[in-house]
Amino acid sequence: MHLVLLGAPGSGKGTYAVELKEYYGIPHISTGEIFRKEIASKSELGILANSYIEKGQLCPDDVTNEIVKKRLIEPDCVKGFILDGFPRTIPQAKFLDELLPIIGKRLEAVIDLEITDDEVIRRIVNRRSCPKCREGYNLITKKPLKDGLCDHCNEPLVQRDDDTEETVKKRLKVYYNETEPLIKYYTDSGFMLKINSEQPIDKVVKDIVIALEDR
Ligand code: AMP
Description:
The chain is α/β, with parallel strands linked by helices. 48% of the residues lie in helices and 14% in strands. It is globular.
């Protein structure tokens, strides 16, 4: 199973990818998460990525493509993968099209998670996560049991620096300019499955699994 999760920031890509990872037993590859780890380790790549991420911009295609290429040839990708947040531009999608046959893989589906801008903003500004175990929370839809603390580690929850309302609005603009054209790209190539992301998490995951099985 080789999947791409497409959708605006806050459409739930990361949340559903975690569920699908368990269900299909394949790795969840988030380019945003790879960049955040590099930023935390203060690597050269992290410093470069942060200069774009903090402004709500996309990191350069060549840098991002190289990261994905390295990751997809790791042994745990032998049975498949779930790409979360990649591709995000037409050149990235073309790069993936060229890379997959070279590494002996083929895409099965691209899942577009449909959501309104108002809901994106509402979800993102309320998004929190545990810095230790990385569990994600939402102050409205998935509250921690104890205010501000992780249910598993008791660590104080943190908010991503790029999850402010101001940066989210910039990220939405970038999404419409750079990423939305991928919907047509993948619809034309017959990979696209559209899923309503404004439903409870279990229902969205169920809809995705049913759509994949139908295919
Ligand atoms: P995410 O965690 O997917 O919301 O990504 C956080 C940030 O990382 C994005 O706003 C971009 O700045 C950067 N990023 C993640 N994936 C990509 C990508 N495929 N291409 C360029 N930049 C990316």
